[in-house]
Amino acid sequence: MKSDVRVRFAPSPTGPLHIGGVRTALYNYLFAKKHNGTFVLRIEDTDQTRYVANAEQYIIDALDWCAIPFDEGPGKNEKFGPYRQSERKELYKNYADTLLKTGWAYYAFDSSDDLTSYRQQHEAEGKTFVYNWQNRADGTLVNSLVLSEEEVQAKLNTGDKYVIRFKTPQDEILKLEDEIRGNITIDTNTLDDKILFKSDGMPTYHLANIIDDHLMKISHVIRGEEWLPSLPLHSLLYRAFGWNSPKFAHLPLILKPVGKGKLSKRDGDKLGFPVFPLEYTNDVTGDVSRGYKEDGYFADAFINMLAFLGWNPGTEQEIFSLEELVQTFDLKRVSKSGAKFSPDKTKWFNQQYMQSKSDAELTDLFLPLLAKKEIVKDYNFVLKVVSSIKERAIFVADFWNLSSFFFETPTSYDPKAAKKNWKETTSELMKELISVIENIGNFSSENTEKEIKGWITTKEIGFGKVMQPLRLSLVGKLAGPHLFDIIAMIGKEETIKRIENAIENL
Ligand code: GLU
Predict the structure, then answer these.
(1) Domain that holds residue 308
(2) Domains of the chain: total
(3) What is the pLDDT of residues 478-499, one digit of tens each?
(4) Ligand 1 neighbourhood includes 167 CB (under 6 angstroms)
């Protein structure tokens, strides 16, 4: 049985989901799972001017890739549906009417031109214009607080454009509570009378959000810090409707890696990292933005990294599976201050996850890359290659650079290393080595090592004199895993061929 804990992720489909949004979804998911609750996805698409058609699918695909599925949402367990606000349009007006009746809201007929000129007038007098208790009934603004009922009705009947505004109570100190920030007090006189509903029949974010959280029985609202200024209004709306308010938790901002302020797409472009989970193509401009998935990040590493952007377990442990995150996550350990994003730390997480993945899993990811290069090799051969190089890789895409010599004879040699290590006497020595190799029977890594090192010892020369040129011959540069593993893998014939090539070319 599920508990009463119900949380929601409520993105507006205005474009691709920023990693800050994914983190909000993740914390909601973790909180829901930890408390055996329900994670709801609600699409807040009341602002038709900012609506982007492919954004909703993008959001769903991103949650899928991150493996943090929602329990209820568009097309899934629609118990409290529909979950797209545009499909719930009809129900909001009644609630706005209720607030009009109870005096918590009023009609305002001021045109935007009128409001602009009020604003300018105020500015000319060195004041700022706020639509609130100071001037809502001073006679200059046109609203149902100053008009008679008949006048209001007449305006509505003639189809005058209107908005419904919230009548913020005056002279009150609101005491609000946030699960992360503690107690917050706000003087209602500093608030403006926000628009709740417009004559185009659409509610604003504030009204729709509150009504839906109530109707969907949301117990905890976990969302980004940018919504903290809306908390006083939201809390007053609950009071106005006579509803119990959910608990609120406002997550800290994700900050730029360098400098001050919120992490933006521009930071990613400038410093070379994605700010979106998946690649995104802008329908209109055709612009493509990078994604973590396409950049080669493992979803679990990405999630682990995100979890730590604003939360920590209070221990030294940094690597957490999703299941462990569910067990350990606690809103009490979410910080109030912004979390600096670090592209290097993100890579570090990927590297850590790389090491913990099985060779078989990584081989499955490497095989298609080899196929693209038209390299066909035995599965077990590739498996061994992967096992020998993965500790040096951050991404699967690094595998080829780290291992091409297992599949292809080097065609060039690092000139610096060649100059330093291929001396006048080297070619003679390498020819001798070829005859030694020809006589090795058991071509295992251990045995070739024993035979070749034995021969070097009897020759009474330094190991480097043979080992470095040998590595250069086989790999093309002084890099790569244990040399005798390479020798055993490529086999006797290929080893000899490569040494001969080097003698010829160096
Ligand atoms: N639709 C809002 C957004 O785009 C939701 C804010 C909230 O969670 O209340 O982030």
Answers:
(1) 268-354
(2) 5
(3) 999 999 999 999 999 999 999 9
(4) no
